[in-house]
């Protein structure tokens, strides 16, 4: 890592004692800063507090007192903490910079970065890039939402490595000088508007991935997404588009069943294992980024011929009694479920439901052409039942994912796809979409003996 001196004896406030907060606090302490960590949870609920205090880092828990901003040079916040937080709002009004730890990771890193953002497909694309870069000249290190906190990766990365980092809009909002070598912008849909307030603000947050790019960096972007393509006009970076609709001699594209990069055939689409039209976009983006980073066709082809998906992201679980079972617990919004439904031509038993954010689900009606059974659970169960009635499909009501999975298996017939794609966040019943997905996987395993 770079031995920075700019933070020596600076007063830094870290807001939030999650993994990113602990990483930022320990790194700033290592760089010679005077660090205070603040968390809304009581001291007794913060296991990490003792660890930090042992290093000489001050911890203030149980609230957000404004006196913590006195003489503060910089505030680094957990990405999930909204900008309406009292300390964040006050810091902004006082002109105190507000970062997320991704900015710190960038500043200390000796390794170049490939950064991926988008409303959907980030994790799949990031994983594809990492696996495609295996055995290349530089070792790929995964960071961000998909892996280890970026600062923890950056502190051990060398110039011979490349950090592949998945970034949310929450993380990107807190960047200032951040400038990846290759930026990948997959798409933009209406999401997280409860956090950002407006679509324009959400797009602006995503666009920060390219705000500092120069002609020495590259933006890989979705030419089929009107918003992304328009935003790409406002960067000085080299532009490398990808498209499933048109030939792009300067980018990655799909043509007559083949994936190309700059007019070179990379692979036949029928050799690819990963299902779904949306995943073709993810693959094109990954191919472009990897070719630009020096990856080989041989490794790219190997990955595309063997990659079955990321856990909880349209993950193929297995076959049971002539039924195909998929776990798409990561589908926490309607658009993600639309993409999942479009991946199949076989009849579907759809398991859906979760946190009620006040929206209806009629937007899914056009995508129900292959859905034969809907198993609804969670807070949104009644709304989904209403959707099922409008679609004219068989409806099964369930209490939770475990109950829904058992009923889906029992209510299915040969030749169907059993798909968990909730279209909702998990927080009404489960701590995260991962916990929800694991509950689905465990229930399937017990009932079918699939391993």
TrEMBL record:
All residue ranges annotated as the Mur ligase central domain in the record: 116-290
InterPro entries linked to this entry: Mur-like_cat_sf, Mur_ligase_C, Mur_ligase_C_dom_sf, Mur_ligase_cen, MurD
SUPFAM superfamilies cross-referenced by the UniProt entry: MurCD N-terminal domain (SSF51984), MurD-like peptide ligases, catalytic domain (SSF53623), MurD-like peptide ligases, peptide-binding domain (SSF53244)
The UniProt record lists the keyword Protein transport: no
Pathway listed: Cell wall biogenesis; peptidoglycan biosynthesis
Subcellular localization: Cytoplasm
Binding site for ATP: 118-124
Catalytic activity: UDP-N-acetyl-alpha-D-muramoyl-L-alanine + D-glutamate + ATP = UDP-N-acetyl-alpha-D-muramoyl-L-alanyl-D-glutamate + ADP + phosphate + H(+)
GO molecular function, one term: UDP-N-acetylmuramoylalanine-D-glutamate ligase activity
Cell division is among the record's keywords: yes
Family annotation (PANTHER family): UDP-N-ACETYLMURAMOYLALANINE--D-GLUTAMATE LIGASE
Described purpose of this protein according to its UniProt entry: Cell wall formation. Catalyzes the addition of glutamate to the nucleotide precursor UDP-N-acetylmuramoyl-L-alanine (UMA).
Protein name: UDP-N-acetylmuramoylalanine--D-glutamate ligase
Source organism of this protein record: Shouchella xiaoxiensis
Gene expressing this chain: murD
């Amino acid at each position: 890592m770079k031995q920075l001196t700019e933070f020596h004896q600076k007063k830094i406030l870290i807001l939030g004692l999650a993994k990113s907060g602990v990483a930022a606090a320990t790194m700033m302490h290592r760089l010679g800063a005077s660090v205070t960590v603040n968390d809304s949870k009581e001291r007794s609920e913060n296991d990490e507090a003792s660890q930090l205090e042992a290093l000489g880092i001050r911890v203030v828990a149980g609230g957000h007192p404004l006196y913590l901003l006195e003489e503060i040079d910089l505030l680094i916040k957990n990405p999930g903490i909204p900008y309406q937080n009292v300390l964040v709002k006050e810091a902004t009004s006082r002109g105190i910079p507000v970062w997320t730890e991704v900015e710190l990771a960038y500043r200390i890193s000796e390794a170049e970065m490939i950064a991926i953002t988008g409303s959907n497909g980030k994790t799949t694309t990031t994983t594809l890039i990492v696996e495609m870069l295996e055995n290349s000249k530089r070792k790929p290190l995964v960071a961000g939402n998909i892996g280890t906190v970026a600062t923890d990766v950056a502190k051990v990365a060398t110039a011979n490595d490349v950090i592949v980092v998945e970034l949310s809009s929450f993380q990107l909002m807190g960047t200032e000088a951040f400038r990846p070598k290759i930026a990948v912008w997959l798409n933009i849909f209406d999401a997280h508007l409860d956090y950002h307030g407006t679509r324009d603000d959400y797009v602006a947050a995503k666009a920060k991935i390219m705000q500092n790019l120069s002609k020495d960096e590259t933006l890989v972007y979705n030419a089929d997404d009107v918003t992304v393509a328009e935003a790409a006009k406002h960067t000085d970076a080299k532009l490398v588009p990808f498209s499933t609709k048109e030939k792009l001699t300067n980018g990655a594209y799909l043509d007559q069943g083949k994936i190309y990069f700059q007019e070179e055939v990379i692979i036949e689409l029928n050799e690819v294992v990963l299902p779904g039209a949306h995943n073709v976009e993810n693959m094109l983006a990954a191919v472009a980024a990897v070719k630009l980073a020096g990856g080989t066709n041989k490794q790219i082809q190997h990955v595309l011929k063997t990659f079955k998906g990321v856990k909880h992201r349209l993950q193929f679980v297995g076959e049971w009694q002539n039924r195909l079972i998929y776990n798409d617990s990561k589908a926490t919004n309607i658009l993600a479920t639309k993409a999942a439904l479009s991946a199949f031509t076989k009849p579907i038993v759809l398991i859906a439901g979760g946190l009620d954010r006040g929206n209806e689900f009629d937007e899914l009606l056009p995508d129900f052409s292959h859905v034969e059974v809907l198993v609804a659970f969670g807070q949104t169960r009644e709304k989904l039942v209403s959707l099922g009635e409008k679609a004219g499909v068989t409806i099964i009501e369930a209490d939770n994912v475990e109950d829904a999975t058992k009923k889906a298996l029992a209510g299915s017939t040969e030749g169907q796809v059993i798909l968990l794609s909730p279209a909702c966040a998990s927080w009404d019943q489960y701590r995260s979409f991962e916990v929800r997905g694991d509950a689905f996987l465990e229930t399937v395993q017990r009932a079918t003996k699939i391993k």
